[in-house]
Structure formats: C-alpha cells, structure tokens
Amino acid sequence: MTGSQLTAREPAPTSGDTNGPDPIAPLPPAAPVPDARAALVRDDPAWPFRSACAADGGIAHLRVWKAEGEGHVAIVTETGLGASTTNSAGEIWAELAACYPGPLVLFEHWPAGDCDDHDRLDQVAMEYRRPTWRRIWPTAPANPDHDLCTAWMQAYGHDLLVTSNPAV
C-alpha cells in the first residue's frame, strides 16, 4: 500500500509520563502478514483473558501473527463468554504486549450476530494508557479513512479473519 498506513502503537511507557500519545510505529508498506497461515504463531479459540469488569474475565478467540519486520498482529474475536473484549481492551493489550515483543497491532473483531448483521473490525490502540478504537470494517464512505480501510480489508483483513490453524 502507498500513502497512509495502518499503524502499530508501542505499549505505554512505564515511567508515568502521560504528556502525549504513545509512539507510533508504521507498518511496512507490504502486507503486515505475507501469508496468513504461515505467519500464524498462535490460534486459541478459547483464550481466557483478565478483566477489571468481571472477576472471572472472559473468553475470546485469539489469533497472533508475526508481522513483517518487527512486531505482531493480533485479532481478538468476541465470543460472548464472560467480560466483553471491548470492556477489557486495556487488559488484553497489556497481556499481549507483554507476551509478544515489538510493535503490536491489535484488532477487536465482533462477528455478525446480536447487534449487527455483518462482522465488525476495529483497531485498538493505547493512548495515555487507555484504549482507543479506530473503525476498520465497515467504514462509512464519509469516513476520511474509508479508502485506506477498504483497501486494507480487501488486501489482508478478510484473509486474517478467516485464518485458523489448530496445529499452531
């Protein structure tokens, strides 16, 4: 892709500095994951995560890929079991950033179901130690990132969402 790129955010510094957003590391211009099946390093359809919202946490489908160059790309799919991935995004981010070195690109995936008749994919970033979301799919045509997000989904997103490899 040329022009604007989806970006990874480094985990928030631990020094207590909250004077600005966390550093932004751009993804390489090529696909962050050249072969979704080959680069998959973790596929856990019943991944337990901690949550400040629920004592027992929640269960999500976690997939993690080694990105080109440095870092990792992760998709956490909501399962409806326990705390929601949205309400637990900060804890999920912290756990994944501790487990997978380098820049982390985290996506939250809500499959079609109760609220929507289509899948929804949001990029989760940490700013001032709090999660923020950027809609990736679907985006309204009026969204300034519509063309970028649509091209990214067509090139990589759909393949990542359907990738699962129980052997990992």
Walk me through what this model shows:
By secondary structure, this protein is of the alpha+beta class. The protein has one domain. Helices cover 17% and strands 35% of the residues. The chain has two helices and eight strands. It has helices spanning 89-99, 146-162, and strands at residues 7-9, 24-26, 40-49, 58-66, 72-82, 104-110, 120-127, 130-137. It has a six-stranded mixed sheet with strand order 3-4-5-6-7-8. It is globular and about 40 Å long. 32% of the residues are buried.
The radius of gyration computed from the alpha-carbon positions, rounded to a whole number of angstroms, is 15 Å
Taking the sheet with the most strands, its summary is:
6 strands, mixed
Structural class: alpha+beta
**Average predicted local confidence, pLDDT:** 78
Content of β-strand: 35-45%
Number of domains: 1
Low-pLDDT stretches? 1-5, 9-31
The geometry reads as globular
Query: Helix and strand succession?
Result: EEEEEHEEEH
End-to-end gap: 29 Å
Total number of helices: 2
Side by side, the strands of the main sheet go 3-4-5-6-7-8
Task: Kindly state the number of beta strands.
Answer: 8
The level of helicity is 10-25%
Please summarize what this structure is.
The protein is an alpha+beta fold and 168 residues long. 17% of the residues lie in helices and 35% in strands.
Give keywords:
168 residues, 17% helix, six-stranded mixed beta sheet, globular, disordered N terminus, single chain, alpha+beta
Topology summary:
Blueprint: E1 7-9, E2 24-26, E3 40-49, E4 58-66, E5 72-82, H1 89-99, E6 104-110, E7 120-127, E8 130-137, H2 146-162
Parallel strand pairs: 5-6
Antiparallel strand pairs: 1-2, 3-4, 4-5, 6-7, 7-8
